[in-house]
Model the fold of this input.
Amino acid sequence: MVPSDVWPINTTIGHDEDLDITAWRLETYGEVEVKLELSYDELENQHSNTTIISDHHCIDGWSYLGHEWTGVHLKEIITLTKPTTKANFILIECERDMTQCFPIDQDLLFATKRNGTTLPREGGYPLRAVAPGEYGYKSVKWVRKIKFTEKRELDSNDLGSIRWSIDLIPPEENPWNCENDTRKKLLKKIFSNQLREERQKRAEDALQKEFKQKE
Done:
């Protein structure tokens, strides 16, 4: 457990370098009757009316208790976007092609604020998911789109597991308090590979940038 005045932020794959908040939109698509394109101002001023207290539990073994999150609940988004009768899951799409899949009835908040203050960029600004009762990695940051689907789609962690020949984690084993040491080891393998690939990509990008500057 960490002190209440400290907010550890773990990140393997970061956010985009450039963000034009005036052009940013939260979009919904897929098995919906109404496709949404909500601006940040619309989210902040018209829909961010839900506040919850949720603890954060990291697979590394530490917990942060008592986060106060404010934002729009998935239930309100469902009311606005009107999913079809085929919709059973959502796939959250974030910056840098990160995705996370949930059942459509998941208790899920899309937060714009923490403890009454606008999220910092590294903490998920402009929008992040908060999934009570799940390990922290499920609360993905830098949300852009929500896709409503009939069947569960593979998300970033699933695709990474396949690419790195790691056993897939059964979706029913997501709750943070599920005692499963094997699952924790698999998650750490996934995150280690994500971090390694991200560091390699950033190093390659830096070399390309340096090369262009010398031309």
